[in-house]
Write a structure and sequence with these properties.
The protein is α/β, with parallel strands linked by helices and 524 residues long. It is 20% helix and 27% strand. The protein contains twelve helices and 35 strands. The mean pLDDT is 94.
């Protein structure tokens, strides 16, 4: 192992190489200083050119950090990742067909690093079937110039599977907290582990170079052996960045690092707006003892509502980054968690998800069609991608898709337990045809999933005959505020009812008693 500086590192990545990058979202174990060094060398020397960037999770602060460093025509040839929502400048290049872009399931890319490490030809999984990732549809492509097929359909034992081919890795950019003089890497300050070990092993299998960004160097032999996440035998270079932040907006939060648990009384309390209303109605789907996943965006409010209501310990929240228990962080820190009970490597979390370990999952939606199909990955030529959405939505026993009924300027108010629409959103979300098929409702129902769609003014269920309206907000005119704003006519439940009025009153809902009643009823 050699300790080098950023300028020396920048010369390692050569034209045309494939770069595998660890970390998650807005700075969670993201080797941002290394990515920036590549950008600076390119701007000064026009090299390296034509690199391929691969990372399972979206990387960026939605402005200039993370994968946004690579948003230069000529520097980047191809990007393969879970999502581009954190790197809009790269997404813009893809939308203009200036780079090749693929968004594949986060869990697939995460698990694929393990397959490469073991010398296997790729990953065989059901995840992605009958979505835009399926090669019979779009094969995960997000730009027109994508010519190579990264996934194909196989039939084994009379069943369809998707086969994601392994790729060659020239360089891995990883991050830890401390490196000792032998290159052993610990991650004590990091908010997630990701797949750092698998990435290092996969890169060495390919004969590539492993470079790790750390905060500090320790004397050889002083790291406790059980704290070493990446053994020194897998590390070629270490770059020290003393001011390395835990995330792009947080210098260090000991709860994110698992160093202590904070009082839930200190958790943020959401204002009673459309997002909190949705989160409150989502929380009412929970039954004590369930194992749940909460996605990013509007769904992160579910954990905060549960904490506010004093029921966060009645069920187990998880996220795809590998955190189990506690409450998920939100905003730019989404992907981290407060007060978690355990952390595992990301590929193993997805093994649990893909194997049906989730009882209930909450994910956002952008568009919904008459069949209940969902689009989250691309709309109005804006490329988002999928993250862990497909792994989660195809495998959870019950699914809740959440979002506001319309988008773009929606403004609401509440009075006496009723909802008022002060200003309607400009964009409809319930459309005749989704722009990209991210969740296939027919496939979900064929696997006996229970599927619910929650907005601030209406709740729907998926049925074999199509989307069915089952609840509406008090104070809402069904024809004017719901049906007239949909591009199709949904089914109307014979048992149509009002949403619980407690959702629209700015005080605790008494969810603790509701969950107790559910638990007691289930026991009886």
């Amino acid at each position: 192992m050699q300790v080098i500086d950023l300028e020396e590192f920048s010369q390692i990545v050569r034209d045309g190489q494939t770069v595998l990058i660890g970390g998650s979202g807005s700075g969670h174990a993201v080797p941002d200083a290394l990515m920036k060094a590549i950008q600076e060398r390119y701007l000064a020397e026009a090299h390296p050119r034509g690199i391929t960037s691969i990372h399972p999770v979206g990387l960026g602060d939605q402005r200039e950090l993370g994968a946004n460093h690579f948003a230069h025509e000529g520097l980047l040839k191809r990007i393969v990742c879970g999502t581009l929502s954190d790197a809009p400048s790269v997404a813009a290049l893809a939308a203009q067909d200036l780079v090749e872009a693929y968004t594949l399931p986060q869990g697939v890319l995460s698990q694929l690093t393990r397959e490469i490490a073991g010398g296997r030809p790729g990953l065989i999984t059901h995840v992605g079937l009958h979505t835009f990732v399926d090669p019979r549809l779009e094969g995960g492509r997000q730009s027109c110039r994508d010519s190579e097929s990264l996934v194909e359909v196989l039939e084994l034992d009379g069943r369809e599977w998707l086969y994601y081919r392994a790729f060659h890795i020239d360089v891995a950019l990883l991050r830890g907290t401390t490196a000792d003089e032998n290159g052993n890497i610990s991650m004590e300050d990091e908010a997630i582990w990701g797949e750092m070990l698998s990435m290092a092993q996969a890169t060495k299998k390919c004969g590539g170079k492993v470079i790790v960004q750390v905060k500090q160097i320790a004397k050889a032999g002083t790291l406790a052996a059980k704290t070493v996440k990446i053994p020194g035998i897998l590390v070629d270079y270490v770059v020290v960045v003393p001011d390395q932040m835990q995330t792009f907006q947080t210098m260090y939060n000991p709860s994110y690092a698992g160093a202590l648990k904070v009082s839930t009384s200190g958790f943020p309390r959401l204002a009673l707006d459309a997002r909190k209303i949705v989160a409150r109605r989502c929380a009412m789907e929970i039954v004590p003892g369930l194992i749940c996943n909460i996605g990013s965006g509007i769904c992160t409010g579910v954990g905060l509502v549960a904490a506010e209501e004093g029921v966060i310990d009645q069920f187990t929240l998880t996220n795809e980054q590998g955190l189990i228990g506690g409450a998920p962080a939100f905003g730019l820190d989404a992907g981290a968690a407060w007060n978690y009970d355990a952390i595992v490597d990301q590929p193993y979390q997805f093994d649990f998800y893909d194997g049906g370990g989730l009882d209930l999952a909450f994910l956002s939606f952008v568009e919904i069609d008459p069949a209940g199909n969902v689009n989250i990955s691309r709309f109005k030529n804006r490329i988002i991608g999928i993250g862990g959405f497909i792994n989660i939505s195809q495998n959870a026993k019950s699914m809740v898709f959440a979002g506001t009924f319309t988008a773009g300027g929606l403004d609401i108010s509440t009075i006496d337990g009723e909802l008022r629409i002060e200003n309607e959103g400009r964009f409809r979300r319930f459309v005749e045809t989704v722009e990209q098929l991210t969740y296939n409702a027919e496939y979900g129902l064929s696997r006996e999933q229970e599927v619910t769609y929650i907005t601030e003014r209406a709740v729907f269920r998926a049925t074999p005959s199509g989307l069915e309206l089952v609840e509406y907000a008090p104070g809402i005119d069904i024809e004017r505020d719901i049906l007239a704003l949909m591009d199709f006519q949904p089914l109307i439940s014979k048992e149509l009812k009002e949403m619980d009025r407690r959702i629209f009153i700015d005080k605790p809902m008494g969810l603790d008693q509701s969950l107790l009643d559910k638990y007691t009823g289930a026991k009886q």
